[in-house]
User: Fold this.
Amino acid sequence: MDFTLPKPHQLFRKMVQEFAAQEVLPRARQMDRQGWPDMELVRKLGENGLLGVPFAQEYGGAGLGELGYCLLMEAIGAVCTSTATIIGAHIGIGVMAIYLGGNEEQKRRFLPDLCAGRKIAAFCLTEPNAGSDAASIQTRAVRDGNRWILSGSKIYITNGPIADVMTVLAVTDPALGARGGVTAFIVEKGMPGLSVGTIEHKLGIRGSATSEIILDEVAVPSANVLGQVGAGFITFMQTLDTGRLGLGAACLGGAAAALDLMCRYAASRVQFGRPIADKQLIQWMIADTATEIEALRSLVYRTAWMVDTHQPYTREAAMCKLYGSEVASRAINRALQVYGGWGYSRDFVLERMWRDARIAEIFEGTNEIQRIVIAEQVMRPYGVRVRP
Amino acid sequence: MRIVVCVKQTYDPATVKISRSREEFDLRGAVKIMNPADKHALEAALRLREAAGGEVVALTVGDADAEDVGREAIAMGADRALLIAGPELAAATGRAVAKALAAGIGHLAPVDLVLVGQAAAVDGTGGLAPRLAAALGWPVALDVLPSLSPSSSPSPNLGGGVGVGAEVGAVEAVAVVDPGVGEAISLPLPAVVAIVAGAERPRYPQPARIANAWAPGLLAICTASDLGLTAEDLAPDVEVGGLVLPPERTRGQVITGPLDAAVDELWTVLQAQRLIPAAAA
Amino acid sequence: MSLDLSYYEALMGVAAAGEQPTTATGGVWVVALAGRLDDGLLRLIGKGRVLADALGAYVHLLMAGEAEAADGNRAIQAGADRVWLARGTPALADLVEFFRPRGPQVVLFPFREISRFATRLGRTLGPGLAQALNGSLCARAADLEVDPIYQRVVAHQPVLDDAARQRVALLASPAVAVVDTTLLPAAFNEPWRTGTIEDTGLTWPAPPPSQPLPQFGGGVRGEGRGGGAAPLTLANAAVIVAGGLGLKSAEGFALAARLAQALGAAVGGDMAALDAGWISEDQLIGLAGARSFAKFRERAPRLFLALGMDGDTGLFMSIQDAGLVVAVQPDPSAPIAAVADYNIYADPVEFARVLLGKLQR
Assistant:
């Protein structure tokens, strides 16, 4: 058992923490206020090699694996959840789908630009009638010679309005459904019939752009079929597994930032003649939060190690997302309580963190779905089949 | 041209505390980093390489931990690194470090330019560059901003400049005289230049280079005796003792009296703690 | 500082070590390179005198540049026993050649001389001389003393932005120190002192012409592009001047900003200053301001000057790491009064005017 990070990852953590403090944090407030990504920041992320962290270097990535990706999400999540969301949608699911499901030619064609940030990716799964029940998507893809014609609409697509490359799940054989009848496609910006629909006005992560994506008879060449025809559902579910881990890491960063804020204020705020840090009520909040953060960190790093060493990790990734989102929400809620009225002020960062944290319990598979995934994994040896 | 950048591992000054009771540094929780001024020196070297071509080599002296800053320099863009390490260097002071670096530079010959950060964080004094220059017998410039331009020969008429791959005989630079006031200098090579922080942040290490920085062949390690240094060369020239601390803070003191007199009294306090710029003092 | 008897003994012209020094070699040397005896150099000669008396040695002054005999007399009144005159500016090799046969025990250089060329000479030649003569060095000393037991020179070297000073014993001879003379005790001026003035006959090349550049930015927010020096921010400044509502008007705040510039400080303001448009968001001091986040700080400010700020938890979080907090505002019952190290209960605008006037004098 050796819990120290490998040397390159120690240096990478230092680098990305500095980047977060110097480049991301100063922009976080403005991004939240304007309700739109700072494209200059996205460009800087790409220039500094932060949009291809986990991928192999032969495709333009940094080759730092899932552990590197988690360190990135932790550091960025500590200062700006919107930016972490943009990165998560790009690396964690958008590009990851191509990386996991694409053939060699597709990887060589798309990954270098995506890793360098010259192009931004989005992952298009959710539909008005297919949220948690992802298998019931209705977007259709019909073969037309050497191409496929895609029709339908996707909603809540993070990076939708800024994406150049989208991985889209569509039904190719309604009779087979999720088991062989669903296929993933790489859809590129500029293809006729592809458009950005309604922009979502969200409670939090306002610095990330979320929209509807409309596919109106978009002709996609067969070369853009991601993996095998009919294998799309599996590719997408695998992708979501790794995406969940990154989300858990971002939550870890947010929770640790909340703890830091909490301690700092408690040490300075004087009431009844003493800093409130002297009060046991405050100390217990801090102790509980610190304990949960350490448990989460162990879980996230270990799961990243499992991914990098090619072990099954579906159960652990779901745990990272479930526990991470809850730990972050609790930590930020407690921090807000410690700050009292100040925490409730729009002048201060905690209200943004509080709004931002809520989404983590909802997106990338609701926490209810995560519990189902975990229960399914835990109870399978007992012969129990868990169904949603 | 071959540029050597001397990089040093220091404690992050923001993480170093002072223990009043023991009159020494409290290093619990202190984090080791690459000396911030050295990052500016490395940035200057990388830009010079971009302008004139050649090779950038990071050179460091220290314990085994110091390997990390050599690797970090590689991740930032240095072509390779040389670490001079070993137990006989554990107690090395400024004189021995300058000798070891000079020996390292001799080992890396031919070297055209040596860049160092002007001063180390925490306890730096800016003595390294002139010491190293004296050990090498080369000219030295202090307080130089990171944008250096290569030229073919030293000249009082600045503004030369050469293209990539051309023979570089001198560098032109700006040395800071006072805050906001500079002096143009032209320095014949080989030379030692001490770099101060510039307006632009040094580049971040590239993630892909970070992943590769520990690959074999990039960083060479040698001992002081490999470089022909004797125990006498490495003997300490100074002995570091305890800290002299300013008087303990007393909160809530009030300076009374008419405003002019109060300002005078505050002036004395600020001057005693050297908080008023030297030019005004 | 504790009572330093040798200082008073020196004042009285009594050598602490008793015996009068006799040899021509050794000794405490002060090197003046700008050809002019500024006040800092006279103080340095006085410090040399104190060290020499403790060590039982002569004080020598090497004056390069446009040295004159009148300067030599003043140096003798300030504590020098022997003054050596030379012309021009020595290169390191010249200085090594000069000192090697003389075997100095201690060589003191000024960190900074008030002159057109020589500002960096002491810092360049001092360490070089130490290395070339295989001596010991403190390249930046704020003070010097002689260890009474081991009879060796101990330099006080500033650390952590001069938050403290480290004692550095100079073991190898010569002990070379580049001394920041600004804080040394006032120079001696004792007409009864005697000494010799000798012309070395040495003429070194004249200093190269300096090529001063116009202002290139740096030090002032918003300037300093490209080749400039690092701009001052709330994250990296050693001194922060922060203004609040108590400055009352944009003019009042502008005065505080001018004061900051004179102090080489970064400017900050509270939420009221932000709302009034006196500062930008990255200059905000308070809970929402950058300084409330540890991640954002690159270094702790040594001085935090709060003008017209009552003090709330946000301000207190921002100044947690400050070395010295000075608050200027009129109300003795304001929360900041208990937190600041020094309070002046006055109109902050008037205060800024007076301090600025004094700084500009």
Summary: The mean pLDDT of chain C is 83. The first helix of chain C runs from residue 5 to 11.
